[in-house]
Design a protein that fits this description.
Length: about 80
C-alpha cells in the first residue's frame, strides 16, 4: 500500500483515483499518521457481502430449532400450491 501525504493527495486526487480504479490501495497521511485509505469499491462491496453472510450465519446458529425434517419443511412450503 502506497502512502501519500494529504497535501500531495489533494493536488493529485484525480491521478490517485485512477490508480485505485486499477486495484491499488493508498494510505493518506498527515504528519506521518494514516488518516484515510483510498480503496477500490470492489473491496468495500466484498467486505459488506462477507459481513452480511456472517450476520446470517450467526442468526441461523442462534435461532431455535423447529424440530421438523427437511422433507417436512419442503412439504409445508409447497402446501397450498397444489390444486
Amino acid at each position: 500500500m502506497r502512502e501519500i501525504p494529504t497535501t500531495e493527495a489533494k493536488s493529485r486526487f484525480a491521478e490517485l483515483l485512477r490508480v485505485v480504479e486499477y486495484g491499488e490501495s493508498i494510505a493518506i497521511t498527515r504528519h506521518g499518521k494514516t488518516v484515510a485509505h483510498l480503496i477500490p469499491a470492489v473491496d468495500l462491496e466484498r467486505a459488506s457481502q462477507e459481513e452480511a453472510v456472517e450476520r446470517f450465519r450467526t442468526w441461523r446458529r442462534l435461532r431455535p430449532r423447529t424440530g421438523m425434517t427437511r422433507e417436512e419443511i419442503l412439504a409445508a412450503r409447497h402446501e397450498g400450491h397444489r390444486r
